[in-house]
Amino acid sequence: MEFPHTFIIRPSAEIGLKTFRKRVVFLRKLEGNICTAFNRSDIPFKLRNGLRFYFLETSQPDRAKALLARIFGISSFSPVVVRCDRDLEKICEEGEKVLRNIVSGKTFCVRSRRFGAQKFSTREVEVVLGARLASYGKVKLVNPEITVGVELHNSQAFIYWEKISGAKGFPGGVQNKALCLISGGFDSPVAAWRVMRRGVHVDFIFFNLGGKSAERQVLQIVKILVEGWGFGQNPKLFVVDFTEVVADLRLKVQASYAQVILKRLFMKAASMIGREIGSHALVTGEVIAQVSSQTLPNLDVITSAASLNLLRPLVAMEKEEIIGQAEKISTAFLSEKVREHCSIAQGSPVIFAKPKKVIIEEKKLNDGLLEVAVTKQKVFDIFALEAKDLHKDYLHVDTVSGSDTLIDCQVPHLYRAWHAENALHLDPDNFPKLIGAFDKKKRYVLYCTHGTVTPQIAEHMQQLGYEAYAFRGGVKQLKELV
What we know:
By secondary structure, this protein is an alpha/beta fold. It folds into three domains: 5-165, VC0802-like, CATH 3.30.2130; 177-390, HUPs (Rossmann fold), CATH 3.40.50; 396-481, Rhodanese-like domain (Oxidized Rhodanese, domain 1, 3-Layer(aba) Sandwich), CATH 3.40.250. It is 38% helix and 21% strand. The chain contains 17 helices and 20 strands. It has helices at 20-40, 61-68, 88-103, 122-133, 187-196, 211-229, 243-252, 258-277, 296-303, 319-328, 332-335, 355-362, 367-375, 412-417, 431-434, 454-463, 475-481, and strands at 5-11, 45-49, 54-58, 74-85, 107-115, 138-139, 146-153, 156-160, 164-165, 177-181, 201-208, 236-241, 281-283, 309-311, 378-381, 396-397, 405-408, 424-425, 443-447, 467-471. Strands 1, 2, 3, 4, 5, 6, 7, 8 and 9 form a nine-stranded mixed sheet that branches. The chain has a six-stranded mixed sheet with strand order 14-13-10-11-12-15, sandwiched between helices. Helix 16 (454-463) links the parallel strand 19 and strand 20 (467-471). It starts with a strand and ends with a helix.
């Protein structure tokens, strides 16, 4: 089947520095990842190997262009504007017809390359086509506004003028596994992306301190990251409930050391799971001096708790750079809504942790709680997750605790007729105006007459960073509980 649109795809320059045997492995992986990306995106295509580059044909050029920019291992790519027989007159005739409006009023040059024996030289192509186009623009051989490329390959010629930057790096999956500690904020998804870009197969681990809504937010962020950039990988997300571990830590450990020791417990648990799944390294989004636990002495103490190699790809980046990168990889709009659950320090946290003191404080903890938490881990296959899975089990609760803040979403006259004691009233029609008054540190349970209105409101609140749930069943079931 012939497709009307063609792209020239250039592999990353670093791949060319590998030995022949390694280069073949990397290029085969790149081919496979391109095919996987287009098949998953349901874009019709045909891929051909052109020795130093690839030709990709498709019927959907706009979607193909957006997808090619997100495949690791591609240095750049160009949409072909003319594809014709390898005949000098034909090349110049078709090239002039298509390119005259593009070079009009601009500086340009023509660059040509050939593969295989040709009846004419690349120099002839550059001179003759350049002369044709000189009637419309000005020839400039150094730093022109437009560079016209002509690739002579076998019996055909391919002409292009755009050179679109690719994601570069190495094809996903050519390196071994690493396990990324992810919180859902700006930093950790960017750290994962930067390691994925080097060809590393990245799995994820989330230490949950924020309940089902926090788990759901992290799942959404990981899914966006992986589906957007993780071609050639089949990552999993491991979720470890750290609620009891943190409760024990708060009760027994000196408050100023709580934050550093929590991070050490993360490293220990991640190392345990990492070794089980064959990871060779842990990845974090830590940055020097961004928060109290990330001073150099504290990072040193935290590192010593990991039994796997520890990678910190963001360690010297500015926050603005990280947020800019998060926007580029499409995780920023969700990360900005994520509530900080990992900050448990009360008072003034230590910024120069002493290793001996850390050991003394850690000995106060119940080691069995960490092992139990790891044993009870939940595992999610990211590509197998569907949109409906991100709604199921994350919006509803069947019980209410004394620490929950109840929100009554009935219409006003039904609220006046009956409402739970101390329940706040939220008229669904006024929700956009009132949402800003709620406290993101509290856990909210919403109820309505029949339980049909609150799921949408709870979902909206979760997306805004609140821990909010819809009570299943409505007022009748709630009356039986309270």
